[in-house]
Amino acid sequence: MSTQFPEVRPRRLRKSSALRTIFQEVEFDLNDLVLPIFVEEGVSDFGVIASMPGVLRIPESKLAGEIERYARAGIRAVMTFGISHHKDLVGSDTWNEAGLVARMARICKDAAPDMVVMSDTCFCEHTSHGHCGVLHEHTVDNDATLINIGKQAVIAARAGADIIAPSAAMDGQVQAIRGALDDAKLGDTFIMSYSTKFASALYGPFREAGGSTLEGDRKTYQMNPMNRREAVRESLLDQDEGADCLMVKPAGAYLDIIRDIREASRLPLAAYQVSGEYAMIKFAAAAGAIDEQRASRETVGAIKRAGADLIFTYFAMDFARDGI
Ligand code: PBG
Ligand code: ZN
């Protein structure tokens, strides 16, 4: 017969703060985090994002100073999102070597050469209609978008981006980018695919942050949030196409998916605590309903526990400032 209560008492593990600390199974630190940033061209002041309290749009002219500040605070990696004033039907500014995507990478690497600079590789911030690629009738033309995404990746990599992070949710995007980079003799450039990306309501505040013009939704290219089997399949396809790292997005409501992919692949795995996850904590804390510091630590820690090696979070600078 196995031993059980009253001899077995798990509360012994929790009796003191010291015991709780030494028996803690998972922890995270700044080395596990990526700070996503919004950079706006053609403006001179920081911009408030009402739905993301504490996050500001950075004017391009102040980007270098901000990156230096993040580096001094201990941030290791940033992901750049551009707020474009040069939108067109296809997002051609993204493959212009003098365009915003290229300039952001150049400015970040010049300001802090050791900062890992990830370039979000998509079109929705740069198209007049706000979709993640070339619009054909009412849907995004997958294969036409692949040609453009390869061009964007080459431009970003040449400008210094360490990691190309395609978020367009097009089939074959990793293969297209790998091919384009290799043809351009950029075989060393790393691809972190947003490999399992759900069509989530939790991107709401990001759309305000990025000045999105989208009408409708992205359900013909991003995944149905109810699909677990397909979520694993999507990431494994990107692994086969040559991704160097996989990603699950959003994170907090998809911990089962993070665990599934962690067990199905040996690649490093990232997870993205998205704008809506951040906003839910911020607004609940502002209303006095929850403690912000504890809630941010708990949610990011839980994403690590689920199996993510790297976590994208808008709380990264708060952790750098206040400790973890
Ligand atoms: C666009 C993109 C989105 C996010 C990152 N890249 C939004 C979307 O797919 O509509 C979301 C990030 C966030 O909500 O924090 N390709
Ligand atoms: Zn997009």
Task: Describe the protein's architecture and organization.
Pathway: Porphyrin-containing compound metabolism; protoporphyrin-IX biosynthesis; coproporphyrinogen-III from 5-aminolevulinate: step 1/4. Its EC number is 4.2.1.24. Mg(2+) binds at residue 234. GO terms for molecular function: porphobilinogen synthase activity; zinc ion binding. Belongs to the ALAD family. The structure is a single chain. With 324 residues, the chain is an alpha/beta fold. The chain has one domain (28-322): Aldolase class I (TIM Barrel). Helices cover 37% and strands 15% of the residues. The protein has helices spanning 17-22, 63-73, 100-111, 142-158, 173-183, 204-209, 229-241, 255-264, 275-286, 292-306, 316-322; strands spanning 33-40, 47-48, 56-59, 77-83, 116-121, 135-136, 139-140, 163-166, 190-191, 196-197, 246-249, 269-272, 310-312. Strands 1, 2, 3, 4, 5, 8, 9, 10, 11, 12 and 13 form an 11-stranded mixed beta sheet that branches. α5 links the parallel β8 and β9 (190-191). α2 (63-73) packs across α3 (100-111), α4 packs across α5 (173-183) and α7 packs across α8 (255-264). The protein is globular and about 70 Å long. The mean pLDDT is 97. The site of ligand PBG has 10 residues, from loops. Zinc ion binds next to loops.
